[in-house]
Amino acid sequence: MNNKNELEQEIEAIEENQEMEVSLDAQEGENSQEAQQTVNITFEPLKREEVAQLFNDEELEAFLYSIKCRAVSLRADDINGAVEDFVKLTLGAVDVSSMPQDVFDALMNIKVSGIEEIKDTYDVINIGKEFYNLLNTAERNNISVESVRKRTENLYRRGVIDDEQMAMGYHNVALLFESLDKSNGYYSKGRDYNVFTNKYMVKALNLTSSIELIQTCLNYIPEKTKNMREMVQDALDRAFRENGNDASSMFQICMLYAESFEKYGCVPVGFEERNVEKDGNYHSIIYYKEALKYAPTVNDEIRTLRRIAKKQNKKDIKGYIDTRLSIIKISSGKLKVMEMLRLANNEGVDDKLKMKLYEGAVNELIEDKFMPKGEKNLLWKNIKANLSDLYGNNSRKIARLQAISDKYFPEVKTKKKVGFSKKSSTGKDYFSR
Questions:
Q1: pLDDT tens-digit map of 311-322
Q2: Is the pTM of the predicted complex or chain greater than 0.85?
Q3: Is residue 114 within 8 Å of 42, Cβ to Cβ?
Q4: Contact at 8 Å (CB) between 126 and 74?
Q5: Count of beta carbons in the 10 Å neighbourhood of residue 212
Q6: What is the rounded CA–CA span in Å between residue 298 and residue 315?
Q7: What gap in Å lies between CA 274 and CA 270, rounded to an integer?
Q8: How wide is the angle at C-alpha 154 spanned by C-alphas 211 and 162, nearest 5°?
Q9: How far apart are CA 214 and CA 142, in angstroms?
Q10: SS3 21
Q11: How far apart are CA 200 and CA 224, in angstroms?
């Protein structure tokens, strides 16, 4: 079918006959030989009784919701999977891979016309495919981007898609604007062309509860954007409500909460001192400590503790020392040695704790199986000098220190210099008499 009249005639024939056989050309084999595959397809609207054989109402709602989420994801595999699932629902096991696009579109428009929620889902699929195709073609322009935006917003107003799917739609629109060339005349003279990308990322942030999408929005939206603190923390509140029972998600949410207080501060509450920076640091520590409860790995725990320590340093020296000791407690090997040495060098640490830290570093240094011997000896010299100062005139401890040095860190004997002869490889010297 090459023109509109032929397509209209085809659809009319379909509606009159209700059933017809469609011949599909398929290519098979390495020689691309053409083969004919004939299948029977019923060209009439899908009936609820047919759907009821596959899903109850609740299952169908969940199934269609999953399709809509995947359709607007911008991920090729998810979009293809959504289309495949939808085709199975509406056409069963029919292979449509070789069906001409216009025939497929005409067929699907008839099949989905009898059930509103299925028809709406097909509209979302088409929107999702359009987002993907526009982003991956040089043919996109201002009008095409505005068109898909308005149609997506119309689906949202009608309740076909929810906040999360509309948020993803705004994210997609933002990426389309980002991809448009500044020279196409869309952007006002003297105006930052990223303003439209930022605008729709802000719209996405104001709707989403997805941790991944929140993080993506934060990567795009300038920190000085108006009401940024409120928007970020409102989004995180939504994410908290959606993911409160998932430890991995809670770790990410708490970390983002803490970072948001670091960047944007907070509104003083009650009798707190009206100092936004102080309040921001105070609240960020609270959320970093909360994140520790959900840290999925030791490395995540250490990373979080370091952020807490950075906030405490020089402002809460006791808290700082306790946090650094917590890092030492869960560390091992070279990392543990270096953490103990760093803390021992802090001005707020008393001599008693310094001695304990240096001695602990020696114990870990001796047990470590992976650190090169040269590096071990270098660290030992530093630790030995510091411990000697701390031990003072305590002959027993000085003797023990020397015994450890002799046994575990003996002086490396200097190797003899490698001899060199100016003679040739055959032993000849043409400069000698």
A1: 998 789 999 999
A2: no
A3: no
A4: no
A5: 10
A6: 26
A7: 9
A8: 30
A9: 26
A10: strand
A11: 16
